[in-house]
Give the backbone structure.
Amino acid sequence: MSELSNKIEIVKARLKEEFLSDTRPWVVTFSGGKDSTTVLHLVVDMLLEMKNEGVKQSKKVYVVSSDTGVEMPLIEDYVGNKLNQIREFSKNEHLDIHVEKLSPKVTESFWTLLLGKGYPSPNQTFRWCTDRMKIRPATYFLKSLSDKNESILMLLGVRSDESVSRAASIERRTDNHRGFSMHPDIPNAFIYSPIKDWTNPEVWAFLSTHPAPWGKHEDMMVLYDKGSGEGDCNVALNPESSSCGKTRFGCWVCTVVGKDKSMDNMLKNPEDMWMKPLHEFRNLLEEYRDPDSGKRQPRRRNGQKSIGPFKLETRKELLEKLLSTEKDLKAELAGKTLISDDEIVQLQVEWLNDGDFFESAINLAKKYGRNVNYESVKAFNEDEQDYIDGICKENDINKELIDHIMQCEHSYRHHSIRSKAFSEFETIVERFAKGQLNEV
Ligand code: SF4
């Protein structure tokens, strides 16, 4: 028996032993990458073997995957297809497998935070995205599962030979007598890494010689061929992961890496060239993040004088660019959108707080063919907007200046003393006269 065959048998026997030893549900984290695919494959093989032996499946197995809403389209399609195949396969085979996609709440999504609240595009020092888009959705799910059960076991596809830091983190773990470690944040959640001592070539050898029970692995190999790099940004599902953003299985908007090599490589393939506008948009996000770009407010939201969030004007510009990119790529996106209706509505809610009375997000969406269901809350209706436009025209007053003054007035709506607003109006007019209006 080869060394790999030996390892496969050892892992399957161990999985079976653990599976039968208690009733805690298992959670297999699935990113679509080779390591998590290998673990899932081994678990499904084990379930099938038990079924053939007439052993009843005594516990549920959850297959969970993260969907940030800004996944690279090729990967989103790939993972979505795999999850469907696994669902279908489990149903046909009568396996107790539940497939779950974990997404951020609309109030914590990438677009709500970046375009709605103006968070600067994430980088290594301010990487707000992984927490909101991956860690929190996974934590909500795992906590609720662990609350309903005495304990849960998470099966991760991490391996010591992935990197020196991964080896060190596996080494640092305090495993119990069954080889499980405690999840650092989820009470009663344990972690098990069945392939931690497998090498990279062994993983590939396994996948290329063992067809997936639910379909095939070849499509994944094609994806790996197209990109480069090895990591997955699945830190949420995998608490031992220290890196995110150096990955082919990441977000298309990712600005945490200086250069998106994965996308660069994909764009070398003629059939993937259509994603170039996405890459350009991502580069724009990186460029606009620069404090000298003029795209950010010179103050933070707490009033501190330091480079702050994206200006409302910048956010409008970016939304328009995003919607026009989406429209241009309509055929290629095949029914998918780059930003959801719920997110557009949430942007409008956020923008209203920043004094956007003209429902710009909803109007931009309309302009680009999106029919978003939005109940106007407080903004001016079209007649009122026309009326204000008319007055500005009649009196030769700049509309943008009036917008800024109204936004400023709106920001004082909860103040009992509003006299300070007048000095701010003066500042706005002064800056307008100097051509520096958008620095306010
Ligand atoms: S891939 Fe990049 S943008 Fe996406 S969560 Fe990870 S670090 Fe953030």
Remarks:
- Residues 242-248 have pLDDT under 50 and may be disordered.
- The two ends are 72 Å apart (CA to CA).
- The chain is about 50% helix and 5% strand.
